[in-house]
């Protein structure tokens, strides 16, 4: 079980969220907004996402850190 957060960029996070059904609905500046039905995520388009922000986005998406890491490696 790997609960360690891996350093990822905003673009990498968006790719993972697309795999679980989120779609990009718009981008304003450095923020990418995704939706999946009633769920919304705003991902900063930075080269490296802060660990706290990353953990919050993963939780809000309904994934565990381990599931996110598995999808990231695919």
Automatic annotation (TrEMBL):
GO molecular-function terms, A-Z: endonuclease activity; hydrolase activity; mRNA binding
Gene3D superfamilies named among the record's database cross-references: Hypothetical protein
TM region(s), chain numbering: none
Keywords on record: Endonuclease, Hydrolase, Nuclease, RNA-binding, Stress response, Toxin-antitoxin system
Record Pfam families: HicA_toxin (PF07927)
Name of protein: YcfA-like protein
């Amino acid at each position: 079980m790997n609960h360690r957060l891996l350093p990822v960029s905003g673009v990498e996070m968006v790719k993972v969220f697309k795999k679980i059904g989120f779609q990009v609905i718009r981008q304003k500046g450095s923020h990418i907004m995704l939706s999946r039905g009633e769920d919304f995520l705003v991902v900063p388009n930075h080269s490296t996402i802060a660990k706290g922000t990353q953990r919050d986005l993963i939780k809000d998406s309904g994934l565990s850190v381990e599931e996110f890491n598995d999808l990231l490696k695919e």
